[in-house]
Amino acid sequence: MPEEEAFCLLVRLMNHYHLRDLFIQDMPGLHMRLYQFERLLEDFEPALYCHLHRKGISSHLYATQWFLTLFAYRFPLQLVLRIYDLILSEGLSAILRFGIVLMQKNASTLLAMSDMSQLTTHLKDKVFDVYIDKDPSAGSILDNGFFGSSSSSIDKEVYRADQLVRDACEVKITPETLKAYTLEWEEKTKAEKEREAELETLRASNAKYAISLRKLEERVEAYDREQAALATELVHTKVENEELKDENETYKGQVRELRNVIEKQPEELETAWQAERDDLMKRNAKVHEENQRLEKEMSELEEELVQTKMQYAEINASHETLARKWTDLKRQF
């Protein structure tokens, strides 16, 4: 094929057959075909679908290489050429028919397997072995053309490519079914994008909350340090309070002793005052008696003084009389 025709074929495959959607960013066409394939597998082979689902094997593990290479990745060239014929004839949706018919032909074998690695290996490398012509005739070799296998097997096999195409054509997949599954996938994708947008919003909010949380943690750490300082101060205060309590108890003891002393002092003072009063009264009585005695003596002395003065006056009068007499006698003699 000339380069120009090959390029035109590539452009038509990319645009008219929508092969481009399988390779652009995020691969929306591939994800849509994989979703359609899983839904069709659930419809045509529900037991196999449930078996693979329980084993954790999704169509992404094995069908991705089928659809991206249009089955050329591992499939024998004999089969690939016939698959391309049907794709160019009916469109890219034909890959779904080939995928379903291969799963149908291998259903019993796959259901008998329980190991995930065995299932994955069979789906990737051996799913086309069901179409090996074990007893090929000369006509079948000439009709199909002997291209051999693209695998690493040494033996060259002849495949029943026509039978594969006939089986694929018998798989009834209506455009309405594909359209319904496409709408489901679009709704699912839209919901996932909305969920992703919501998750991004939540992540942004979470980042803000993380910053706020960090600030709160810093504030809590500051509060913890302040609380530790307050706790230390509280311990010191408690120690001081204990010391003050001890000192207060000491003062209370002293107050009780002083109170006992004060309570006892009035009685002692009363007793001492009464004793002193009695003593003073006795002394006063003695002084009074002494005063009376002295007054009596003074009265007696006053009387004696009066008598003495009277005697003195009499003596003085007698003296004066005698003196006059003496004077008279002197004059006479």
UniProtKB/TrEMBL annotation:
Compartment(s) where it occurs, according to its Swiss-Prot or TrEMBL record: Cytoplasm
Domain Rab-GAP TBC stretches: 1-91
Coiled-coil residues: 199-318
InterPro entries hit by this protein: Rab-GAP-TBC_dom, Rab-GAP_TBC_sf, Rab_GAP_TBC_domain
Similarity comment: Belongs to the GYP5 family.
Gene Ontology biological-process entries: protein transport; vesicle-mediated transport
Name of protein: GTPase-activating protein GYP5
GO cellular component: cytoplasm
Keyword Transport: yes
Pfam families referenced in this protein's UniProt entry, alphabetically: RabGap-TBC_2
UniProt KW Protein transport keyword: yes
Keywords associated with the record: Coiled coil, Cytoplasm, ER-Golgi transport, GTPase activation, Protein transport, Transport
GO molecular function: GTPase activator activity; small GTPase binding
